[in-house]
Design a protein that fits this description.
The chain has 108 residues and is mainly alpha-helical. It has four helices and no strands. The longest helix has 30 residues. It is elongated and about 95 Å long.
């Protein structure tokens, strides 16, 4: 369950980053009008003049909400995990006694 939510969290975060990078800022229209000089109708060809702004902002709000929910869920599951106070407690201890072979010669 944790890994499924983690994968969903990573996918949503990558989609959110991509969606934010696609959006243009508030000053982009003024720059396009100053440099283009003739209207700049290409920016509104896919969604209409105001359609892209509402679609992209609504999609980012939905992805941000899903990102927030998955973050809280992962935080909840990490708090429920068994905690180990020390690294030595997590390692299984086995005492192995090694005996020296009997056929070794005595050292001078």
């Amino acid at each position: 369950m944790d890994s499924l939510i983690l994968v969903l969290h990573i996918v949503v975060s990558l989609l959110l980053i991509g969606l934010i990078l696609i959006q243009h800022g508030k000053g982009a229209d003024a720059g396009a009008a100053a440099l283009g000089g003739g209207g700049g109708g290409a920016s509104s060809s896919v969604f209409g003049s105001q359609g892209s702004t509402s679609f992209l902002s609504r999609s980012s709000a939905i992805l941000a909400t899903v990102f927030f929910i998955t973050s809280l869920t992962l935080a909840y599951f990490s708090g429920k995990a068994d905690r180990v106070d020390s690294v030595t407690q997590s390692v299984a201890t086995e005492i192995v006694e090694q005996e020296a072979p009997a056929d070794l010669p005595d050292l001078p």
